[in-house]
Amino acid sequence: MFFDSWYDLLRIMVVGACAYLGLILLLRATGKRTLSKMNAFDLIVTVALGSTLATVLLSGDVSLSEGLLAFALLCGLQYAVAWLSVRSERFQGLIKAEPSLLFFRGRYLEATLRRERVTHEEILAAVRAQGFAELSAVAAVVLETDGSFSVVGSVLGSVVGGSGGGELGSLRTVRGAAQAAERSEQAS
Questions:
Q1: Are residues 72 and 91 in the same domain?
Q2: How many C-beta atoms lie closer than 10 Å to residue 188's C-beta?
Q3: pLDDT confidence of 159, banded at 50, 70, 90?
Q4: Which CATH number is 149's domain given?
Q5: What phi-psi label fits residue 81: left (phi over 0), alpha (psi between -120 and 50 degrees) or beta?
Q6: What CA–CA distance (Å, rounded) separates 105 from 180?
Q7: Domain boundary, last residue among 95, 116, 139
């Protein structure tokens, strides 16, 4: 229960060190994107790499070469998906989610909050985490593709990236931003 053999411990040390080095080399070769958290697919690859490393370390049924092949396969698939998503908007639409606007110019966007399953309290926590004490200082809150919140502040009367109220700046690719800006302008 506590100890089977010295061989098992030696195997874990040798295979673990080799698997770790192999994984590091593969990650350096495939780039920073492999372990990013840009979207759900990236998260899946990160978890799968960790699970594969654990299996290689702890299972005597999986050889080092099989583990390294599994690492190479996962990194290669991640590289291929990233390569395709950069070159094809259609493929990118299949793989990546869009960021969603949750709060805009003093108003919670209730339909989006429900669809994304986000509460007012989570918005307030994100605003506080970014150092804002008042919602009036916040132009927008965005739920990013990786599940994090971005808080965009209002600057001296300008709203969201420009001196005019209609410009969206950094929010131009956020789902619902254009419609929220139009509604906000109509209300003023």
A1: yes
A2: 7
A3: very low
A4: 3.30.240.20
A5: alpha
A6: 9
A7: 95
